[in-house]
Protein backbone atom coordinates (compact mmCIF):
# COMPACT_ATOMS: atom_id res chain seq x y z
CA UNK A 1 0.00 0.00 0.00
CA UNK A 2 1.39 3.39 -1.03
CA UNK A 3 1.71 6.06 1.63
CA UNK A 4 2.15 9.81 1.27
CA UNK A 5 3.58 11.89 4.10
CA UNK A 6 2.14 15.40 3.85
CA UNK A 7 3.82 17.99 6.06
CA UNK A 8 3.17 21.72 6.40
CA UNK A 9 5.36 24.20 8.27
CA UNK A 10 4.13 27.62 7.16
CA UNK A 11 3.03 30.03 9.87
CA UNK A 12 0.72 31.98 7.53
CA UNK A 13 -2.34 29.79 7.92
CA UNK A 14 -4.93 30.23 5.17
CA UNK A 15 -2.72 32.88 3.54
CA UNK A 16 0.04 30.33 2.98
CA UNK A 17 1.16 29.63 -0.57
CA UNK A 18 2.86 26.37 0.34
CA UNK A 19 -0.20 25.02 2.13
CA UNK A 20 -2.36 25.59 -0.95
CA UNK A 21 0.07 23.60 -3.06
CA UNK A 22 0.77 20.74 -0.67
CA UNK A 23 -2.98 20.27 -0.25
CA UNK A 24 -3.36 20.27 -4.03
CA UNK A 25 -0.63 17.64 -4.36
CA UNK A 26 -2.14 15.43 -1.64
CA UNK A 27 -5.62 15.66 -3.18
CA UNK A 28 -4.45 14.63 -6.65
CA UNK A 29 -2.15 11.95 -5.24
CA UNK A 30 -5.06 10.42 -3.32
CA UNK A 31 -7.27 10.50 -6.41
CA UNK A 32 -4.59 8.58 -8.28
CA UNK A 33 -3.93 6.18 -5.38
CA UNK A 34 -7.38 5.31 -4.07
CA UNK A 35 -6.02 2.54 -1.88
CA UNK A 36 -3.18 4.73 -0.67
CA UNK A 37 -2.90 6.42 2.71
CA UNK A 38 -2.13 10.09 3.32
CA UNK A 39 -0.39 10.88 6.60
CA UNK A 40 -0.94 14.59 7.25
CA UNK A 41 1.00 16.56 9.83
CA UNK A 42 0.89 20.29 10.53
CA UNK A 43 4.10 21.07 12.38
CA UNK A 44 2.56 24.17 13.94
CA UNK A 45 -0.02 21.92 15.59
CA UNK A 46 2.59 19.35 16.66
CA UNK A 47 4.41 19.47 19.97
CA UNK A 48 8.00 19.39 18.71
CA UNK A 49 10.38 19.42 21.67
CA UNK A 50 13.83 20.94 21.28
CA UNK A 51 16.94 18.81 21.61
CA UNK A 52 17.70 18.39 25.30
CA UNK A 53 20.33 16.48 27.32
CA UNK A 54 17.63 13.92 28.15
CA UNK A 55 16.84 13.42 24.47
CA UNK A 56 20.45 13.10 23.31
CA UNK A 57 21.24 10.79 26.22
CA UNK A 58 18.33 8.54 25.30
CA UNK A 59 19.33 8.49 21.63
CA UNK A 60 22.70 6.96 22.49
CA UNK A 61 21.36 4.46 25.01
CA UNK A 62 20.73 0.87 23.79
CA UNK A 63 17.03 0.09 23.49
CA UNK A 64 17.14 -2.55 26.20
CA UNK A 65 18.73 -0.08 28.61
CA UNK A 66 16.29 2.81 28.23
CA UNK A 67 14.61 4.09 31.37
CA UNK A 68 10.93 5.03 31.35
CA UNK A 69 11.93 8.69 31.35
CA UNK A 70 14.21 8.15 28.34
CA UNK A 71 11.47 6.28 26.48
CA UNK A 72 9.18 9.22 27.11
CA UNK A 73 11.84 11.64 25.83
CA UNK A 74 12.12 9.62 22.61
CA UNK A 75 8.38 9.06 22.09
CA UNK A 76 7.73 12.11 19.84
CA UNK A 77 10.76 11.29 17.73
CA UNK A 78 9.79 7.62 17.48
CA UNK A 79 6.39 8.57 16.07
CA UNK A 80 7.86 10.95 13.48
CA UNK A 81 10.51 8.43 12.47
CA UNK A 82 7.84 5.77 11.91
CA UNK A 83 6.04 8.14 9.57
CA UNK A 84 9.07 8.83 7.36
CA UNK A 85 9.97 5.13 7.29
CA UNK A 86 6.43 4.05 6.39
CA UNK A 87 5.81 6.58 3.60
CA UNK A 88 6.92 6.08 0.00
CA UNK A 89 6.45 9.71 -1.04
CA UNK A 90 6.89 12.95 0.87
CA UNK A 91 5.26 16.29 0.08
CA UNK A 92 6.72 18.97 2.36
CA UNK A 93 5.65 22.61 2.48
CA UNK A 94 8.75 24.56 3.52
CA UNK A 95 8.63 28.33 2.92
CA UNK A 96 11.78 30.41 3.21
CA UNK A 97 12.07 32.32 6.49
CA UNK A 98 15.10 34.58 6.81
CA UNK A 99 16.91 32.68 4.03
CA UNK A 100 16.38 29.27 5.67
CA UNK A 101 13.69 26.80 6.78
CA UNK A 102 11.04 27.69 9.40
CA UNK A 103 12.09 27.00 12.98
CA UNK A 104 9.45 24.29 13.38
CA UNK A 105 10.86 22.44 10.38
CA UNK A 106 14.35 22.49 11.87
CA UNK A 107 12.89 21.04 15.08
CA UNK A 108 11.27 18.35 12.94
CA UNK A 109 14.58 17.49 11.28
CA UNK A 110 16.27 17.22 14.68
CA UNK A 111 13.66 14.64 15.66
CA UNK A 112 13.94 12.42 12.56
CA UNK A 113 17.70 12.34 12.03
CA UNK A 114 18.37 9.31 14.20
CA UNK A 115 21.37 7.00 14.13
CA UNK A 116 20.21 3.43 13.69
CA UNK A 117 16.78 4.61 12.56
CA UNK A 118 17.10 6.88 9.54
CA UNK A 119 20.86 6.57 9.00
CA UNK A 120 23.67 4.33 10.12
CA UNK A 121 27.45 4.32 10.30
CA UNK A 122 28.29 0.91 8.89
CA UNK A 123 32.07 0.45 9.08
CA UNK A 124 32.37 4.11 9.95
CA UNK A 125 30.72 5.22 6.71
CA UNK A 126 27.39 7.09 6.90
CA UNK A 127 24.53 5.39 5.09
CA UNK A 128 21.01 6.75 4.68
CA UNK A 129 18.22 4.36 5.56
CA UNK A 130 15.36 6.21 3.81
CA UNK A 131 15.80 4.27 0.59
CA UNK A 132 13.56 4.34 -2.48
CA UNK A 133 11.68 7.42 -1.31
CA UNK A 134 10.57 10.43 -3.35
CA UNK A 135 10.55 13.93 -1.84
CA UNK A 136 8.76 16.93 -3.31
CA UNK A 137 9.41 20.21 -1.51
CA UNK A 138 7.05 23.13 -2.07
CA UNK A 139 8.71 26.37 -1.09
CA UNK A 140 7.84 30.05 -1.40
CA UNK A 141 10.21 33.00 -1.58
CA UNK A 142 9.51 36.71 -1.39
CA UNK A 143 12.02 37.28 -4.20
CA UNK A 144 13.75 35.46 -7.04
CA UNK A 145 16.60 33.39 -5.60
CA UNK A 146 17.62 31.69 -8.83
CA UNK A 147 20.37 34.17 -9.75
CA UNK A 148 23.07 36.14 -7.95
CA UNK A 149 23.27 37.91 -5.58
CA UNK A 150 20.13 36.38 -4.00
CA UNK A 151 21.01 32.81 -4.99
CA UNK A 152 23.85 32.74 -2.47
CA UNK A 153 21.33 33.55 0.29
CA UNK A 154 19.10 30.55 -0.40
CA UNK A 155 19.80 28.08 2.41
CA UNK A 156 16.52 26.19 1.95
CA UNK A 157 17.15 24.05 -1.12
CA UNK A 158 20.86 23.28 -0.49
CA UNK A 159 20.16 22.38 3.14
CA UNK A 160 17.20 20.12 2.42
CA UNK A 161 19.02 18.39 -0.42
CA UNK A 162 21.98 17.81 1.89
CA UNK A 163 20.09 16.56 4.95
CA UNK A 164 17.63 14.30 3.12
CA UNK A 165 20.36 13.11 0.78
CA UNK A 166 22.31 12.14 3.89
CA UNK A 167 19.26 10.16 5.02
CA UNK A 168 19.20 8.29 1.72
CA UNK A 169 16.57 10.25 -0.24
CA UNK A 170 18.05 10.74 -3.70
CA UNK A 171 14.89 11.57 -5.65
CA UNK A 172 14.18 15.18 -4.63
CA UNK A 173 12.25 17.83 -6.55
CA UNK A 174 11.47 21.44 -5.68
CA UNK A 175 8.37 23.39 -6.65
CA UNK A 176 8.88 27.10 -6.00
CA UNK A 177 6.70 30.21 -6.04
CA UNK A 178 8.54 33.54 -5.87
CA UNK A 179 7.31 37.09 -5.39
CA UNK A 180 5.17 39.30 -3.18
CA UNK A 181 2.77 40.97 -5.61
CA UNK A 182 -0.62 39.21 -5.27
CA UNK A 183 -1.02 38.71 -9.02
CA UNK A 184 2.52 37.41 -9.38
CA UNK A 185 1.94 34.96 -6.53
CA UNK A 186 -1.42 33.87 -7.99
CA UNK A 187 0.18 33.24 -11.38
CA UNK A 188 3.04 31.44 -9.66
CA UNK A 189 0.64 29.14 -7.84
CA UNK A 190 -1.05 28.16 -11.10
CA UNK A 191 2.32 27.43 -12.71
CA UNK A 192 3.30 25.41 -9.64
CA UNK A 193 0.10 23.35 -9.93
CA UNK A 194 0.99 22.50 -13.52
CA UNK A 195 4.47 21.48 -12.35
CA UNK A 196 2.87 19.26 -9.70
CA UNK A 197 0.62 17.71 -12.36
CA UNK A 198 3.71 16.77 -14.36
CA UNK A 199 5.43 15.27 -11.30
CA UNK A 200 2.37 13.23 -10.38
CA UNK A 201 1.80 12.07 -13.96
CA UNK A 202 5.42 10.88 -14.15
CA UNK A 203 4.90 8.93 -10.93
CA UNK A 204 1.82 7.21 -12.33
CA UNK A 205 3.70 6.18 -15.47
CA UNK A 206 6.58 4.86 -13.37
CA UNK A 207 4.19 2.76 -11.25
CA UNK A 208 2.59 1.27 -14.36
CA UNK A 209 5.98 0.45 -15.88
Summarize this structure briefly:
The chain is α/β, with parallel strands linked by helices and 209 residues long. The chain has helices at 17-32, 53-59, 68-86, 103-112, 157-166, 182-208, and strands spanning 3-8, 37-42, 89-93, 119-122, 125-128, 134-141, 171-178. It is globular, with a radius of gyration of 18 Å.
CATH architecture: 3-Layer(aba) Sandwich
Distance between the termini: 17 Å
Question: Overall mean pLDDT score?
Answer: 94
How many domains would you count in the coordinates?
A: 1
List the helices and strands and how they pair.
Layout: E1 3-8, H1 17-32, E2 37-42, H2 53-59, H3 68-86, E3 89-93, H4 103-112, E4 119-122, E5 125-128, E6 134-141, H5 157-166, E7 171-178, H6 182-208
Parallel strand pairs: 1-2, 1-3, 3-6, 6-7
Antiparallel strand pairs: 4-5
Describe this structure as you would to a colleague.
This protein is of the alpha/beta class. The chain has a single domain, classed as Rossmann fold, CATH 3.40.50. The protein is built from six helices and seven strands, in the order βαβααβαβββαβα. The chain has helices spanning 17-32, 53-59, 68-86, 103-112, 157-166, 182-208; strands spanning 3-8, 37-42, 89-93, 119-122, 125-128, 134-141, 171-178. The longest helix is centred in the last third of the chain and has 27 residues, at 182-208. The relative contact order is 0.16.
